[in-house]
Design brief:
CATH architecture of the largest domain: Roll
CATH class of the largest domain: Mainly Beta
Number of domains: 2
Helix content: 40-55%
CATH superfamily of the largest domain: Pleckstrin-homology domain (PH domain)/Phosphotyrosine-binding domain (PTB)
Number of strands: 7
Strand content: 25-35%
Radius of gyration: 20 Å
Strand order of the largest sheet: 1-2-3-4
Length: 179
């Protein structure tokens, strides 16, 4: 039996965030997309000087479209490039994980987890159906705690779990409408 809630505080370096990111998106795909994006950005800046003031609009639209389409890829790359060490504070509760981002805690429902695996020996990577990815330093979490997360993920895949998710969605929708 595991005591819930439990809190995890740890630090992730660039490599612990980059390697899983590359393996999730594809080791060759990430550099290709980043280079394509940079090409569009450079063309957006250079083309108006050579072809006229509106010539860069097409390339700007392509850069923006690529960025919006693959937002998760770019967020991960920018995080690795600009933040050398990421301090993490995660609270695992009965049904959700609360991740402290800035001064605000954001929650992911545990039954929405789609994958838990180690892309590196020192880092667990948890993927959520909404596209969120949570990296946890392996030294910060026990096998029993990982088993708890896996059990929650499996519950979300059962017919009862799916019905619970639908009901929770209806309640949230009702709250959002003010009723």
């Amino acid at each position: 039996m595991i005591d819930v809630p439990f809190q995890l505080r740890y630090t992730l370096n660039r490599r612990q965030r980059l390697v899983p990111h590359l393996k999730i998106w594809g080791v060759l795909y990430v550099p290709f997309i980043v280079c394509l994006f940079l090409f569009f950005v450079v063309q957006t800046i250079v083309t108006p000087f050579t072809q006229g003031p509106w010539a860069g609009v097409f390339f700007g639209a392509m850069a923006l479209g690529l960025f919006l389409l693959l937002r998760g890829l770019f967020v991960g790359v920018f995080d690795v490039l600009f933040v050398p060490l990421r301090e993490m504070d995660v609270i695992i509760e009965k049904e959700a994980a609360g991740i402290l981002v800035g001064g605000e805690r954001w929650y992911l429902f545990l039954d929405g987890i789609t994958d838990i695996r180690k892309f590196r020996d020192d880092t667990w990577t948890i993927r959520h159906w909404n596209g969120s990815v949570l990296h946890i330093a392996a030294a910060a979490i026990t096998d029993v705690q990982i088993d708890y997360l896996r059990a929650a993920m499996e519950r979300g895949r059962t017919p009862e779990g799916i019905r619970a998710v639908i009901e929770r969605g209806r309640r949230i929708e009702q709250i959002m409408r003010g009723g």
